[in-house]
Each structure stands twice: as C-alpha cells, then as structure tokens.
Amino acid sequence: MIDLNFKPYLRDGVDVYINDKDKTVVFVFLSTRERIQLNVEDYLVKLLPHMDGVHTTYDLVNMAGEYNKSRITKFISYLKNKGIVVNADWFEKLELDGNYKARLEKQIFFLLDMTSSIEKTLHIQKKIKNTTVAIFGLGAIGSWILVELLQMGFEKIKLLDYDQVEGSDINRHAFFITDNIGLNKAEAYKKIAKKITPDAIINSHDIQLNTECDLDTYLNDVDLVINCADEPYIGYTSINLSRYALRKKKLLFVAGGFDAHLASLGEMIVPFKTPCSDCYNNYFKESLKGWKPIKHAVTDRDKGIGGLISLSIFSSSNAALSILQYFVDLERFLSSPSGRGEFKFNDYSIDSFTVKRDINCEVCGV
Amino acid sequence: MFDKKSPLRLRPSVSVIPTSDKQVWEFFQSNTRRMKHIKLAEPELAEILYSLNGETIDSLMKEHKHLEKAIESLLPVLIQWSMIEYVTVANEIENNDNYRVLNFLADYIPSDQLLNVFNNLENSTVLIIGVGGVGSWIALGLAQSGVKNFILCDPDTVKPHNLNRSLFYDSDIGELKTKVICNKVDSFGDGYNIIEINEMINSSGDVVKILDVYDDINLVINASDFPNVDTTSELIFEPCMVRNIPHIVAGGYNLHLSLIGPTIIPHKTACFKCIGKGLELQQQEDFSSIRKLQRKKRNIGNISPLAGISASFTINESIRVLCQSDKLAPVMTNKRGEFNFLTSEVAFSNYEKLDDCFWCGAKNA
After folding, report:
1. Is the Cβ pair A196, B170 closer than 8 Å?
2. Parallel, antiparallel, or unpaired for β B257-260 and B253-254?
3. Which of A323, B35, B73, B207 has the lowest CB atom count within 10 Å?
C-alpha cells in the first residue's frame, strides 16, 4: 500500500490526454511512445493536476473525500508502478556523487523516461560509470565518440593511437586545436578529455592496431572495445579485435569509417549473440562480389578524398546512441536486427543492411 | 568555357567499375555514394577516362584522332558531372588544410567553379541564436568546415547540467557560452571574426536590432530552445523574411524524437508560417475531443548523441545554403524531419507555400 506521505509527481516525460466525453485518460510516454489508456472516474481525473510533488497522497485523499481513500491510494499506487508518477524528490535522493549527478541531470531524466523506473535508471548510470572502455583510433570518428562517452558519464577510458594530429584534421576532429599539431592523438586528446571530465581515469597508448599487437596487454581489464582504426581498413582491423573479443567475451563496437570516412552506422558485436566481424566480412564479400573498381590512375589518393565534420558527428553519435541503447535495454537491443547502415548526404536517407549471424562462421558459428 | 589546354585527371575519390554490359561503365563518387552509368561504345574511350591523369583535351584529341569528336564532347560533360577535375585546381586543394571539405564539395561543384564556391562558404557570416545543446556543435562544426564569420547570440553562462550535451568542458563552468565558443574557434587558427551578443531575445524587435546593425548576414540559425524552439522561431522568422535572409530552425528536442527543422529561403520555399499551418492540418484529427493536461516547467531529458545528430543535419544544411550554388541546394526546404532514436530511422514530412499566407501568398509573389 502507498505511504500517505508519498508526494506523487506526474513525471515530465509523460503526456496526459483527458477525454471528458468517454471518461478516459491516456498516458503517453514521450520517449518510447508507449500508451496506457484507462477508464477513470471524474474525481480521480480531477486529482491529476494536483499530482505536482507538492501535495501528499493524504492531501489528495482529503481533496476528493475520505470515503474514496482506498480507490485513490490504489490509483496512485498503480500510477507509481507504471512509472507515471514518481516521488517528487527522486532526483535529490538518487545515490550518485553530487558533481556527477549535476552534470548528468538531463541524461538521468532521459533514462527515467526510457525505463520508467528509478531503480533501473540508477543501475544503468552506475553501470556506465563503472565500465572500462578502450577506443582504437582517435580520428574523425573516435575523437567524437570520446566526447560523447564522456558526456554520457563514462569515466574509465583507454585511448590507443599511433598517429599524430595534422593541420587538416581541423575538418574532422573533435578537440582540434592548432597547438596539438604534431602530437600523438591519444596523448593530446587525453589532456582535453581530462578538461571535460577531471574525475575521469584516462590512459593513452601510442600503438598501432595490427596483427602483431598483443591485445591482451591493453585490453585485459576492458569491458567495451570501440574500433575506429581504419588503417589499412576498418574491416581488416576489426577481424583481429573481434576474434579476441569473442574469446574473452568482451563487447566490441565497430564504428564508422567504412570506406572513405563517411557517415556509416556501425555495429555492436555482442559475443555469440550478434554477428561477429567475420560474419560481416563474409556478408559483404558475398554482396559486393563482382564489384571491382579498376586500378585508379592517381596512385597517391590520400589528399584527394573528401569528408565533412557533420558526417563524422552523425556517425559517431549513432555509435554512442547504440552503446547507450545496449546499456538501457539489452533485451530490446538484441531483439532489433543487427546490421550496418549508411547515411546519404545527397537526400538525407539512410540505407541499412541487415546482417545475420553466419551459421558457417568459423569464429562464432554453432 | 572549358580550357582544352589545361591538364585533367580522374578525381581520386571517383572509382570506375566495369559492369556486366561491356559497353557500360559505372562511375562511382565514393564521397557521396552516388553513381552514374555511362555507355562508352569504344573500349579505348573508357581506357582514356580511367587512366586520365594529366592529359589535356587537346593532347587527347591529337593522340586519338578517330575519337576526336567523342573526346571533345564527353570530357566537358564529365567535368560538369564532377567525375574528372583540373590538375591545377587539384593541386590547390591538396595544399589547403581544408582539402577534405573541398574534395567533398567537389562531388557537386565542377572543378572550374569549386574555389569560388568555397570562397562563398568561407566569407559567409552566420548568426547563431543559442549556443548551447545544439548551437555549440553547430558553431564549432561550421568553423571547422571553413566558415570564418560568426555572430553568436546567447545570454547564458555554462552550467554543470549543460555538460552532458554541449561542447563545453568542466573548466568552462561559469563562463559566458559565447566567450567559450569564441576561444575554442580562435584555437582552430587565424582569420576568424566572431561577434558576441549576450542579450536575451525576447521579441522580434530584439532580432531586428541585430539585423539592422549587422547587415551582411547570410544565414540565421535558430538553436535557441527556451522556452521551446517554436516560440523562438516565431520571433526570428519575420525579420528574416523582411530582409530576405535564409534561416534554419535547428533541431531541438521534440517529443523525444530529434527534430530536423526546415531550411527557409524567403519567398522561394514554404515559410515558418506555411509549415506551421501544414502541421496543424496534419494534427487536427488526432486530438479533436481530447484535452491535454497543461503543466509548467517540465524537465525533459536529453542526451549527447541526439544533440550531435540534430547538429549534424543543421551543419549539412548550412553548408548547402552558404555555398550559394545551384549545384548544391538545401535538402530541408519545404520539409521537416524527425530522427527516431529507437530505430535510427529518419522520416520526413512535406509542406508547401500556401496561397493564403501573408508572406508567401499570391499577393507577395
């Protein structure tokens, strides 16, 4: 039964529509678009505007008349269970460090909208805080993912890159400043990351991801690996990482940068639950069969390739969003189809390719 | 006119791929993922194109006498289609730190016009109203894309709860948002001009004052969502219509979907009012006998990736507007879009100029 001192607050992320004609109330959860429709008697409808976090349940009972006490408490109890009303001071009481909570207020409200549960919200944000992430490649995609991970409250991050910041990175990197030109990207961006979140624990390593790289040295204590290393090609560097991640049951996100750094939607690889990088490789090898460009007349093409910062931001934001979705609702995450996508600048459409686990995959097949 | 004596090359980002039809070749622009199938009856002509690296139209015509006519007519078309480029322009691009943006724009803008068009982008002046959740990304993103002149309007200082989705640092807390953006842009290099205005926009008159003082503004971006983006757009659109200044309603958070706002080119595309009316018509049926419970001061959540996605659309649109080229028109004219973060899908709805609109109607045409 509900405590009479409970101060119900109609949650900001829920819209309330009242139909006075047929006595129905519809609650619409803004984030998920879920709806709950109820047939509600008049005196209960009249109480809704007073569920403002100021009035106690006791006050509401008095407003409507003592004789309806059990109906009213049942109604409020129902709304509380559904996450439509919350205790007015839920945010103040949330057990998170004060600075961290202040910085993440908007995201915590968002998470509550997504989950309708204060317990789940707290659990998700704590899990994010305690997860160790590694980012390979701090370039057009990786640097922006780093920004967004920090903004989402990740605080244990390893940065790995062998390359230096160049003047032309102005067109694509988060944190670009001329003072960093010539410095190792991982080292330079670690310093800026610490400015964003002084409490974060950030390590940087000047190494290249290749077949000789002993992954375990760097990744043993890492929970989530993000691959943005596109030298020579992201599909290639991912194979090595994906096999390692599967063996060690670690999460891997293969982010953007597929072919010419444009706005790709990358993929989360959940070991033995979603397709692995070998599955993706097999899929694209098959679907691109017969598509073979003629050797290009211009041999050194690096400075002939285009890019836009907005496409890097789009791609990395989708990666960050996907990572957040994994933390918010694993079941929903796994039930939606895996695949890769591509944003088309030309008309702002998104092409998506659904990829399934390859049953014959030598790495993750059954 | 096309310079027949100037060396040409196949653009490095363009691939040529044989197809199952031996006479048809796919020309693929990898920057923008667009392709054209071109029928070339002579295999020799295909070879000329895919190995083009420094030859001129004149030299090719001399070398391949029997294909003279085909070369003379086809190569200018391929320049127009942004498949091949002048080597002199390519060299200039390579020596520019903005070579990625230049090469990207070159998918749309033919080689002979490219540097002029980029000049338009660089010399533009953009007024951004609100440099917070979405505006901070837009301002820095445009500065990193080549735009040099900004007027930033925001009265606020950085607060802890801004940090989860604006490009501010912990060390920026307490500083004016415009000042922080200004310092960051200055660290990108020389040549930027930024004017800061730290006043709240409360009325159309406040916007008029700014536009009267700074009369060279090429684009106004509304990224101010207090109290909401519709209210602020209401104040901004009229002065922009009067002065014929393109304006973009930058994304904002709309019912938890990221709104992709329209780009309005005054008197050419549906205006803010036309779109508002169109929206009303779409929504009318839904809520006829139903009332919505009104509540004050709602704290709706928000996250970094949605700010980034919103901003990315506005940056794309701004670049299209500021290039001022008919080869690269804005996409979001007569349109509104929403990005669904649960499915990563985008959906658009279309609007048109309405005859009874005070601004766009027949009287004003």
Report:
1. yes
2. antiparallel
3. B73
Domain termination site, one of A55, A70, A86: A86
* Residues from chain A contacting residue B40 (CB–CB below 8 Å): none
Residue A75 and residue A173 in one domain:
no
| B15 lies within 8 A of chain A by CB | yes
ipTM at complex level = 0.95
The string of pLDDT tens digits covering residues A258-280 is 555 578 889 999 999 999 999 99
Residues for chain A: how many in total?
366
B51, B293, B345 member nearest A16 (Cβ): B293
Whether B5 and chain A come into contact, CB under 8 Å, resolves to: no
Which of A109, A298, A306 lies nearest to residue B10, judging by beta carbons?
A298
Are A318 and A194 found together in one domain? yes
Say whether B178 sits in a helix, a strand or coil. Answer: helix
Residues 6+ apart with CB under 8 A from A325: A332, A333, B342
The answer to whether position A101 is within a domain reads: no
Residue A47: C-alpha distances to residues A78, A81, B198, B334 (Å): 14, 18, 42, 43
pTM exceeding the 0.80 threshold for the entire prediction: yes
Say how far apart CA A202 and CA A191 lie, in whole Å.
9
For the stretch B182-226, pLDDT in tens is 999 999 999 999 999 999 999 999 999 999 999 999 999 999 877
Q: How many domains does chain A have?
A: 2
Of B49, B24, B47, the closest CA to residue B37 belongs to B24
Contact A167, A178 (CB under 8 A): yes
Nearest CA-CA partner of A161 in A142, A180, A174, A144: A142
3-state secondary structure (DSSP) of residue A37: strand
Question: For the segment A148-176, what is each residue's pLDDT rounded down to a tens digit?
Answer: 999 999 999 999 999 999 999 999 999 89
Chain A CB contacts of B303 below 8 Å: 106-107, 110, 151-152, 321, 324
Structure token digits, residue B209:
């004052």
A116 belongs to a structural domain: no
Verify cis geometry, omega within 30 degrees of 0, for the bond prior to A232.
yes
> Is A312:A148 a contact under the CB 8 Å cutoff?
no
- The answer on A178 and A311 residing in a single domain is yes
Helix (H, G, I), strand (E, B) or coil at A364: coil
| Residues of the domain holding A41 | 9-86
CA pair distance B195, B152, nearest whole angstrom: 6
Note whether A57 and A9 are within 8 A (CB).
no
**Sheet containing B14-18: which strands, arranged edge to edge?**
B14-18, B24-29, B34-39
**Among residues 58-87 of chain B, which lie with CB inside 8 Å of chain A?**
none
For domain B123-364, which CATH number applies: 3.40.50.720, 3.30.530.20, 1.25.40.10, 3.30.70.1150? Answer: 3.40.50.720
- Taking Cα atoms as reference points, which of A121, A188, A193 lies closest to residue A150? A193
Q: Scanning every residue of chain A, which has its alpha carbon at the shortest distance from the alpha carbon of B290? A: A19
| β-strand partners of B348 | B337
Asked if B348's CB is within 8 angstroms of A15's CB, the reply is no
Q: What is the DSSP string of B92-145?
A: HHHTSTTHHHHHHHTTTS-HHHHHHHHHHHHT-EEEEE--STTHHHHHHHHHHT
How far, in Å, are A72, B23, B54, B301 from residue B307 at the CA level?
A: 40, 47, 45, 12
Q: Do A148 and B308 touch (CB under 8 A)?
A: yes
Give buried/exposed letters for B236-263 (b at 16+ CB in 10 A, else e).
bbbbbbeeebbbbbbbbbbebbbbbbbb
Domain endpoint, select from A86, A117, A144 = A86
